[in-house]
Amino acid sequence: MGITSADGDSESASLLVPHPPPKIPRDSFHLAYAIYFTLGAGYLLPWNAFITAVDYFDYLYPDASVDRVFAIVYMLVGLTSLLIIVAFAHKWNSVVRINLGYALFLVALLAVPLIDAWYVEGRVGVYGGYYGTVLMVGLCGLADGLVQGSVVGKAGELPERYMQAVVAGTAASGVLVSVLRVLTKALYSQDASGLRRSANLYFMVSITVMLLNIIFYNLAGRLPIIKYFNDLKSQAVNEEKEQEGDLTGKAWRSTLWDVMRTVKWYGCGIMIIYVVTLSIFPGSITEDVHSSVLKDWYPIVLITGYNMFDLVGKFLTALYLMENAKMAVWASFGRLLFLPLFYFCLHGPDLFRIEVPVTVLTCLLGLTNGYFTCVLMILAPKTVLLQHSETAGIVIVLYLVTGLAIGSVVSWLWVL
């Protein structure tokens, strides 16, 4: 497939720079790692808040397929914003993109509870509120494109453990919201008032994390290890300018095309991972499976199981990183087997439709999603020169969001 794998397992790993200085500053107290972990959790938390509050939105808007509509709007808007970022990444500073993205997240997350409090007021069928909420989902998709592409791109310029931190953080956000959902379901009544209080809690937690992420991100640039790699990139960029001139117009398009060709198989692997995952989760998990024992706890148990094992998979790369990229890509395509397996669980013999096989499959879906996503996202930016690592990271996120968008559309086939 023309894949080039990279070696190295430390902070002095093989970043492709012209003249790497001999000594890398320590990440004291693992502060930079913790910040990038939190940044990864932050940009996915708004999406998790929307999809976890689906019980309340289903109550308010019973004639709408809320979770599927949310998924399509979020992913398609995010994909569009990423295309724009890829085209103009060389002209638009990542600091501006990330801060603007978090500001948009805050606007959307604040607007949804306010729409409910001042306009919907807990009444069923006020579809003006539904359209306003969908608009805020789209705004979060735009913010996600700005933040996710840029954070992953910046992590691509750093040693491998920081990309692992970002990707693990995305899984941690799912676990956090799942834990909140379990607690709210156990503590709050499952009537309109209880569902409303639960949804408001998800949004308030997300707003708090967004504010913290703005602070953390702007502090990260002052850490010695981050400044070190920023200086390395500046050195590499300046040397490239001296040799080839500014990357504008045709020169930028040529460089972008070279980066895309270099990482294309990594991107295809990530894309197919999320086509498979989003075609099944959360749509079929929340709407199409039923348990006479667990009743309305069943979707919550499945979503929590998926998120927990997704986190486990992303942390496993810190213990063992599959450096054979070709094998990782083939394993990603092998996840297509989940589609017929889940079809059997939905429409096959009763033996396959009980809780145990569905739960095991859901946990395996999360585990493989987490591990192979993390592997490919770690390896891909290390196949290009340091000054192009951010671009490679953004391109990989473009593949990821394309997979999310396709998977969201495919998920509708389960209801046909």
Describe the protein's architecture and organization.
The protein is mainly α and 416 residues long. It has a single domain (30-415), classed as MFS general substrate transporter like domains (Growth Hormone, Chain: A, Up-down Bundle), CATH 1.20.1250. It contains 15 helices and no strands. It has helices at 31-52, 54-60, 66-88, 94-120, 127-156, 160-187, 192-220, 224-244, 250-280, 283-287, 298-319, 325-334, 338-347, 355-379, 389-410. Helix 4 (94-120) runs antiparallel to helix 7, helix 9 packs across helix 12 and helix 9 (250-280) runs parallel beside helix 15. The protein is globular. The two termini are 36 Å apart. This is Equilibrative nucleotide transporter 1.
CATH architecture: Up-down Bundle
Give the low-pLDDT segments.
5-15
Q: Would you state the CATH class?
A: Mainly Alpha
Number of strands: 0
The CATH homologous superfamily: MFS general substrate transporter like domains
Approximate helicity band: over 70%
Structural class: mainly alpha
Write down the overall mean pLDDT. Answer: 86
* Count of folded domains: 1
CATH topology, by name, is Growth Hormone, Chain: A
Please write the string of helix (H) and strand (E) elements. HHHHHHHHHHHHHHH
> Overall 3D geometry?
globular
Number of helices: 15
C-alpha end-to-end distance? 36 Å
| Beta-strand content estimate | under 5%
**Radius of gyration, in angstroms, nearest whole number:** 21 Å
Biggest beta sheet attributes: none
Transmembrane segments: 31-49, 69-88, 100-119, 131-153, 165-188, 200-220, 263-285, 297-321, 328-346, 358-380, 392-415
Membrane topology: Multi-pass membrane protein
Main location: membrane
Protein name: Equilibrative nucleotide transporter 1
